[in-house]
TrEMBL record:
Domain Cytochrome b5 heme-binding, chain residue ranges per copy: 2-78
SMART domains given in the database record: Cyt-b5
GO CC, alphabetical: membrane
Name of protein: Cytochrome b5 heme-binding domain-containing protein
Region (Disordered): 128-157
Residues annotated as transmembrane: 164-183
Protein origin, superkingdom: Eukaryota
GO molecular function: heme binding; metal ion binding
Xref: InterPro entries: Cyt_B5-like_heme/steroid-bd (IPR001199), Cyt_B5-like_heme/steroid_sf (IPR036400), Cyt_B5_heme-BS (IPR018506), Cytochrome_b5 (IPR050668)
Annotated compartments: Membrane
UniProt keyword annotations, A-Z: Heme, Iron, Membrane, Metal-binding, Transmembrane, Transmembrane helix
UniProt record similarity statement: Belongs to the cytochrome b5 family.
């Protein structure tokens, strides 16, 4: 079984004499690998005692590098310390969207500052990326699966609310005008 390690404990291993790095919620002791690392030791020391997932994924390490990780694993982060406060994914958002049947929706959404769940869509339009509120962007389900969702809206974005407010106001004006005409006869 994996050893459970707290963030506090990882934080203690932050200099050359002992370097622990978190990658995808697992903890690696790379002290003996510092000088061998093809990307240099400095880059590892920068994330020593911390989460290095972003840097690790940013340079798209090879499968060999990922295999090598196993050799240095010392445990996993205490699950109670892993943040779980994700906002709804774009799929959740689509389920509740008025524009569910239209792919052009994505373009509308991008233009609406109140609906910031979509950050980007890849150029081949094969996957969607969502903005989950914590500045991390991740690919999600394919367009097809988005398209197949048909639940009615229950969480419209601000501009939809605005639309209904305008309709209600227009209705009130029409009724007011009709009442005025009726009463002044
Ligand atoms: C902690 C475990 C890590 C291992 C076992 C590891 C392993 C490797 C390996 C084997 C390579 C050669 C290229 C490849 O096969 O992908 C490499 C390159 C590199 N790594 Fe890491 N790495 C680790 C962490 C990191 C982290 C946390 C960062 C950044 C914050 C990083 C940045 C780099 C860079 C910049 C290169 C050079 C890429 C190039 O010159 O093209 N590595 N690493």
């Amino acid at each position: 079984m994996d050893r459970i390690i707290t963030l506090n404990e990882v934080a203690k291993h932050k200099n050359q004499s002992s370097v622990w790095i978190i990658i995808h919620d697992s903890v690696y002791d790379v002290t003996s690998y510092l000088e061998e690392h093809p990307g240099g030791s400095d880059i590892l020391l920068e994330v020593a005692g911390k989460d290095g997932t972003q840097g690790f994924e940013d340079i798209a390490h090879s499968d060999d590098a990922r295999e090598l990780l196993k050799k240095y694993k010392v445990g996993v982060i205490d699950p109670t310390e892993i943040p779980t406060t994700e906002k709804p994914s774009i799929i959740e958002w689509y389920r509740t969207s008025l524009y569910i049947s239209q792919f052009t929706f994505i373009d509308k959404l991008k233009k609406r500052p109140s609906c910031q769940y979509v950050e980007d869509m890849d150029s081949k339009e094969k996957s969607w990326r969502t903005y989950d509120g914590s500045s991390s962007v991740r690919p999600v389900e394919s367009k097809k699966s988005v398209h197949s969702l048909t639940r009615p809206p229950s969480r419209p974005c601000e501009s939809s609310k605005l639309k209904w407010a305008v309709i209600a106001l227009a209705g009130a004006v029409v009724i007011g005008f009709a009442m005025h005409r009726y009463l002044s006869k």
